Structure formats: C-alpha cells, structure tokens
C-alpha cells in the first residue's frame, strides 16, 4: 500500500476583510504562558501553543524585509523568502513530519486540478 499525503496550500491575493477570519497561523503572536479557565484557574499551554511560541521567537531572529503586504514582512529562511504564516507551517512540518519510504508526497494550489491530482 502507498500512503498519499495531499497538502493544499492556500494563497490569498488580497488583504483579509472582516468577513474572512484569519487562519490559526495568521493570528497574533502567542504571548501568554498560561490560559485562564472558566472557573478562574489557569491551565498550562498545549504542546502546539508551546511549539508555536518557540517558532515565533525563532522567526523573530531571521532577516525581515518589507514585502508587498504592509502588515506581513518577508522573512528569509534557508535562502528563500516566506510570509510568517507559511514559515511557521514549514518549521512545524520540518520538525514533526516523518516520511516513510512508501510515501508519495503531492502538493498543489487550490483550483489547479487538485481533484484530478488526488485521483492519480
């Protein structure tokens, strides 16, 4: 059997409006170390939140330049320029994705024949 991992990379061509909510990776920087609970007690952050904070701190040390989107500078990493949400996702995938010898990895942008590509 061959496991097929399909990743669809979203690409926005315009700034987010009030009708579009930002993706989890595009939200503001995580700064709290504990989260308030409904009963007033505080809970420890999840493993995902800890990793996200670590990636954000690491990304802050990389070179930044003003890009074509005023609120999203371009960040250099590994000889390439990324927007912050994409770079956070790449760092997460580099750390946690474990490919197997039988894996077949396919990437495509939406509306570029993704359904056809999945059928392969």
Automatic annotation (TrEMBL):
Keywords: Transferase. It comes from the Eukaryota. Gene3D superfamilies: P-loop containing nucleotide triphosphate hydrolases. It comes from Noccaea caerulescens. This is Cytosolic sulfotransferase 18. Residues 15-50 are annotated as: Disordered. The keyword Transferase applies. Residues 18-36 have a biased composition (Polar residues). The keyword Repressor does not apply. One of its GO terms (molecular function) is transferase activity.
């Amino acid at each position: 059997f061959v496991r097929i991992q399909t990743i669809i990379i979203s690409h926005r061509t315009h700034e987010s409006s009030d009708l579009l909510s930002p993706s989890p990776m595009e939200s503001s920087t995580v700064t709290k170390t504990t989260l308030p609970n409904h009963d007033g007690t505080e809970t420890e952050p999840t493993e995902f939140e800890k990793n996200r904070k670590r990636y954000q701190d690491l990304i802050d040390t990389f070179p930044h330049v003003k890009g074509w989107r005023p609120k999203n500078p371009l960040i250099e990493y590994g000889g390439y320029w990324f927007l912050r949400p994409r770079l956070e996702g790449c760092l997460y995938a580099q750390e946690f994705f474990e490919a197997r010898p039988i894996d077949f990895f396919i990437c495509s942008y939406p509306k570029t024949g993704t359904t056809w590509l999945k059928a392969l």
